[in-house]
User: Fold these one by one.
Assistant:
Number 1:
Amino acid sequence: MTVPDEPMTMPAPGIAAATRPREMLGPVYHVVCWNDPVNLMVYVTHVFRQVFGWDETKARKHMLEVHEAGRSVLVSEGAEKAEFYVHRLQQYRLQATMEPAE
Amino acid sequence: MRQLQPRDNRLIYRLETREAEHFRQLLGHFPFTPPVCASVSRTDSRDEVCEREQLLNESLAEHRLQLRQLARELSGPEHLMELKSCWRLSVTPEQREFLLQVMNDIRVGCWEALGQPEPLPVMRPGLDAREYALISLMHLAGAFEHHLLEAPGEGVEPGCCGT
């Protein structure tokens, strides 16, 4: 009894981008929004929806985290994208920064 | 001020005469406070952060100039129109975003000029003229933010802002 030939394929060399370890892609930054007493809650929720395209529930969850915990990590991104988000949030006068992820 | 039903991808607001006056004053005199230095990080002190901070502040200064120009345009008759017994504001969703940024810049700027007090200051006897003006502006800008973000009301008022 013979076994039919299995198709032979060679694995692609290297590592696919999606599975690369994070350190190979450069440093990661948390985009953080900090609490303040002046930005209105409804406004902060609106800004999160505009900047990140989130739905009301997610935007409100992060807004409440800012309000109650003093800060919220909104997204974690490479330097360029994190910087972009910080610029956008600060255009709305939110207190947003990018902090190196540990 | 309240939002009416949107029309042709434009957001429509009805303002009482007094509200329209305040609205025009806010936009006409924007910005009320000088720019402040924005921070890009609270924990990172590497050299590259200074460079990022400089870029951020240049970008924000340029953005503020654009907002000033837009504020002038949005308080003009093309957007803010006097009707029989009220005023009508008509803006695109994108222009509404700029309006919100203008109003919040006024609000946050006044708060910063007051020394970033916590909790927020309220009107009380004994304030000097500068404090009084800043607190008034801060609350006025916040009220407009609220109204700009309110959901549209039902129907259109006949003979007023519905035309």
Number 2:
Amino acid sequence: MTDDMGRGAAGLADGFGEAMPGRATAQSDDFHRVPGLTLRDALSERTTRFPHVHVVRDYAVLRQIGRIRHRQYVQSQGKTYASMVLERHCLIEPCDFHAVNIYARDQRGITCAMRIGEAGDQEGPYAAMIGSIARQFDVPLELALTCTRLVRSPRHSGRHAVDLIDFVRWQTVRAGWRYCIMQTAEKLVPFFRKFEFQETGQWSEDAAAGRLQALILDTRHIPTQKRQETSR
Amino acid sequence: MIDDDLKEANGLLEVYTCIAEAQERFADLLSSYLVDHPTTVDQYIRYLSFQYHLTRNVQRYFLAIAAHADLARRRPLREFLYRFANEEELHYLVAANDLAKLGLRPLPMPFDVELWHHFFGNVVADRPFVRLGAAVILENIADGVAKEWVKKALQGAFLTRDNTKFLVLHQHETLPHGNQVLTAIEEGGLDTRHFADLVEGARKGTVLYLRMAEWALRPSALAAICDRGILELDIAEEERIRSFNMAELGHPA
């Protein structure tokens, strides 16, 4: 099953413009997580590739993202996600404080945002499902991430969502992570397939979000996709 | 001599009355929210943020009090203040490190903390006991009748060992600064005018602290209209916060 995920995977990376000392820099079976390096550290590592992508470090920014989430998920899509903060129309959840939120911005503010967590985080909202999928598809949890709450500002086209996904891959694969496990609604499966996510055929019924399929990305430790494969 | 003792006893009594009143008001404030709701993470973020700004550079106040000529013949109190300054100096980093464990930097300084520093910063050199009176409140307000509500406020699923170091440190049992300050004052041989300043500082400190607490508890409180977006921290300060270790405090936490 793991081999199936490899179908369509990109070839060799198009170069590692920015060195991350101590990290593997080529496709190999010897890749490993850098000891002591947290997911936040990996995502916060300076890069010139994605100057408009940032890690959330301030509550004011998280609040803005929470408002975009609420508008997108609760108001527009009618999903009954519960927020943990006092502010109305702002969706912030417990795992926002042990995962890492990232966002893209332009001159007018936040355009897109996404939350990245470690697949092995037992406090994560979908820990049981992710653990089950990982076991079933032989994905080592310590090398896997999850991506949740991908949102875009209503004023924005959403093209920065692509940059967020590319950014996560670039930053985390170079730090030793390899896989991403996520769940998405059926209509978004084609979107994520463009990023080499593979369908698992494992569907679940989420109380708030409805029917979701688990997808897995195996980067094979290659931090970028072949450009010709990404006709977005 | 008996008159002096009586005056001192009266002065102390008034300080204790200020503490009890502050605790009662703090309990009222906390209970007005907590009776119906648990603490939320945004309240906790606001609490740690105002504590970061309130306690940053706190040693300057205590060393300024210690430097006043009125302490020239009250050296045990001066020595206490010197030790106290050392003990308190790094507590702002504990608050900031707790926030860092939530993935966040402190919020910008709330307006009421600005007021605190403007007022006490201007008064401390000439009337140091006004600032010491405020310290008496800060170190004791969470005790007495407020204690049960403070304990209730400190319950939340988002609270972990890693992000509650500031709270644990300031539990009365862990660091009995409230009692220590009062003992130092009691043994300080202070005059009536000193007690008058202590009471003034205790009352003004109570007003400002309760306004900060309300700002944390109710993000829609009046003071929040002055909130600004993001705190600018230089790289060195961010690294100080990130790498902070409780062992730096130099006493068991």
